[in-house]
Structures are given as C-alpha cells and as structure tokens.
Amino acid sequence: YKMAGDSRFPDVDIYGSEKSEEMEIVVNVGGVRQVFYGDNLNQYPETRLAELVNCLSGGYDSIFSLCDDYDPGKREFYFDRDPDAFKCIIDVYYFGEIHMKKGICPICFKNEMEFWKVDLQFLDDCCKAHLSEKKEELEEIARRVQLILDDLGVDASESRWKKCQKCIWKFLEKPESSYPARVIAVLSFLFILISSVVMCVGTIPDLQVVDAEGNRMEHPTLDSIETACIGWFTMEYVLRLISSPNKLHFALSFMNIVDVLAILPFYVSLTLTHLGAKLMELSNVQQAVQALRIMRIARIFKLARHSSGLQTLTYALKRSFKELGLLLMYLAVGIFVFSALGYTMEQSHPETLFKSIPQSFWWAIITMTTVGYGDIYPKTTLGKLNAAISFLCGVIAIALPIHPIINNFVRYYNKQRVLETAAKHELELMELNSAEGKAAGSRSELEDLSRESKEGPFYSSRIKVSHSDTFIHLLSEEKHHRTRLQSCK
Q: What distance in Å separates the CA atoms of residue 322 and residue 38, rounded to the nearest whole number?
C-alpha cells in the first residue's frame, strides 16, 4: 500500500477541491472496472461508494479504510470482492432497487450488500424470500448440529438423574444414536404393525367367539396380544414423558397426542366394562366400548414417527393447502353445476333417479372423481351428455393441482437430505478444527451460532466461515483463508 508522505505519490488533497457532484471515480472490483459520477452516488450518501467521493481529501488513511488498494495516477479504487454481486448492487444507484441474479449465493450476496453499506430494504421481495429461506436452512443446520453435540457432550455438573434422563430420551427418541436404540425403534414399529393386524383380524366372524349373552367378541388370544401391545405403548409413552426435557411441549406435540389417542381407548373401555354396568345399562356400555375400540385406528398414525416418508408427505400436504383448496373449489363448483343440470335434464324421464338437486350431488361427486358406482345414472340423451362433460371436467380439475403438490413433496424431501448432509459436513469440519484439542471451543462456537441465529444479526458470520473457509488452512499452510471473492465463486 502507498502511504501518505511518500514522494512517489501526488498529494491526494488536490482532488478534494472538485465538486463531489461532478467528480468521476473508477472502481475496480475483482478485475472489473466501473466508472461512477458523484451525482449518482450521492443519492445514497451512507453507502461505501458515496463515501469514496469525499474520502480523497482525508488522506490515504481515509482511502484505505474504504478500499483494498488505490492508484492515485489512474484515480482507481481496488476491491477484492465478487464482481457479479457488485453488478447487481450498483443497480440501486440507477433503478432504486436490487435484484439478485440466479446462481449467486444469497448468504454471500447479503454479506456483499453489508460491505457496500447498502440497506437490505432495497432488495426485491422475491429475493428477500430466497434469502429468508436460506436463513431458515442455516438455522436448521445449526439446530441439528447442536442437537448432535448435546447428545455427544457430557456435562460433569449434571446430576445422576439428569444424565439418566438424557440417556433414556436418547434411547427412545434417537434411533441413530446407538445400536440398541435402533433395536427398540424396530420393536416399536413391529408392535404397531402387530396391533393393527390384530385389530383387523379380530373383526373376522370365524375368529370371534360368543359370550354367555350370545354376543360376538374377539378371540381371547387376540385380546391378549392386544393387551401386550397396549402395555408396550404405555410403557414407551410414560418413559418418553418422564425423560422429556420439555414436558409441556411433549404433551402438546401432534404425534404424542396421537399416541395418547391410541392408548386411551383401551383403558377407557376396560373401565367401562368393569364399572360401567353399575352406572348405566349394559347395551349402552357395549355401544360405548365398541365406539372406543374403533378409535384404535389412530395407532396406525404412530408409523409416522418411524417413517421419514410419511413425515415428508404430511409436511407436503401442509404446504399445499392452497393447491388443495383450489382442488376443492373446482370440484365444488363442478358438483353444483352438473348436479343442477343433471336434475333439470332428467325430469322429463318418467323413471328418473334424480329426485332432487341435493340428491344429485352424490351422483356428481362419484362421476367427477371417476368412481362411478352406478347406483344413480342418467337415462336421457342430454343427461348422458352432461355426465360425459362432468367426467372430463372432473379429470381436469383433479389433475391441475396435483403437479404443485408433487413438487412440494419432492422439494421438501430433497431439502431434508441436503440438510442432513450439511449437518454431517459441519460436524466433519468441527472434528478437523478440534484436531488440536479444541473440542470444547468448537462446541461453544456452535452454541453461540445457534444463539446468534435467534438473537443477533441476520446471519452469524461464524456459520459462513465454517461452511466455506475453515477447512482451507488445514489443507494448505501457505494460505490460511479464502478471500470473499473466492468464497462467492
């Protein structure tokens, strides 16, 4: 760098007398030269480029606080930054807004905007959405890594009960933590399947027995298997509740509510069977028990706890409410129109099956959904033509929203795989960084990262470093870090 007072440099103060509006400056960003005029840059005086206009009168200390290098002969400022991102950022001086080009990392682009001191409010809404999505991904990666570190770490200050509680929680909730935990997960999965099969097989008349009152009931062997399965589910739920770090969150979780609904009917029906006869009529008790036994179908949803595919499907449907709403709206309009037309066209036939428009709704539903039971069908020529049109419209109405729903499923599934890979990569980087005995420091860094993602700036700079920079110095001793330009590329 050229220092003030060097005889080889002209005095920079000679440029300070020019009017800043008429001043022309040359900026070289990553080898790409751009020429700017003061009147354009001074529209946003708080940005770094606008500060360049007035920095010449402050000497070389002021200049080098804003740029990486300066050539007073060419009057050219040098920056080791990403030129592609810079081309997008300078649009704010001409158009008042910024659009992020496709292929640029949103994290790096956000950091570039911070370097050039351009406010994020100038970023277009579509680009802000992309940036927000990346922020959520980084927070999710930090959360996953923190969970893994919490599982691996042992706090000597914790009581024996806390350590035991954490081990039980890991044993039941995280099958990937150990081989015995995977065995328990497989056993739980098998108990769910066995219980579901027993519920279905118990309804076969040939396998049922007749009690003293002449009523059919499940075979005692099947009943014993059902009791054993419920005992497993109960023990599993109680242990998970006791070992849960946040019991209120655990109790209100959707999957845990499903677990309760799968277990509760057995105990309620058992109570009604032994005590209900004294409080109400026997027929009412039997009806209540039968209704509660139907609730056993809720246990099939317990499979979602052990199936990432079902979890992905649930999330895809949750993200597809708009598409599902459109599907229901299309079908509702079609059902109303074609049922009304079918009722009107079939009134001329003496043996018509369309007695009213509400009754015709059933015909329109089974026709538009291509089910076609045949219990209600048109008999006139116009009615048959109406049925054909309603069938075609139903196929189109169902097919239109399906593609976005499938896209949501595929996008979320791929995103989960990417996040898992990124979390593993993050742990590998931390293992490399802790090769010199800094495992404790690495853990505290991740804790800070997780905290900063919630409390601090929009992104933590540490997560950027850990993703793109930290492994370089382990591979080469000559270069200890990547430049921002290399990281962006």
A: 49
Q: What is the pLDDT of residues 149-208, one digit of tens each?
A: 666 655 556 677 777 888 888 888 777 777 888 888 888 888 888 888 888 888 888 888
pLDDT tier, 71 (very low <50, low <70, confident <90, very high otherwise): confident
Gap between the Cα atoms of 274 and 43, Å rounded = 83
Cα separation of the two ends of the chain:
26
What are the residues facing 74 on neighbouring strands?
Answer: none
Interatomic CA distance for residues 461 and 484, integer angstroms: 12
- What is the per-residue pLDDT across 77-99, written as a single tens digit (0 to 9) for each? 999 988 888 988 888 888 888 88
Instruction: Quote the CA–CA distance of 244 and 344 in Å, as a whole number.
Output: 62
Number of domains present in the structure of the chain: 3
Domain that holds residue 174: 163-303
Residue 472 lies in a domain: no
Domain's final residue, options 73, 95, 123: 123
**C-alpha distances out from residue 216 to 128, 203, 220, 394, 458, Å:** 64, 10, 12, 44, 65
Structure tokens belonging to residue 134: 């990346």
- Euclidean distance between CA atoms 100 and 157, whole angstroms: 49
Strand 76-79, strand 209-210: pairing: unpaired
The neighbouring-strand residues paired with 53 are: none
Structure tokens at 122: 């100038």
Contact assessment for residue 449 and residue 138, using Cβ atoms and an 8 Å cutoff: no
For residues 373 and 230, give the distance between their C-alpha atoms in angstroms, rounded to a whole number.
Answer: 39
Specify whether 170 is located in the same domain as 269. Answer: yes
Q: φ, ψ for residue 10 (rounded to 5)? A: -70, 155
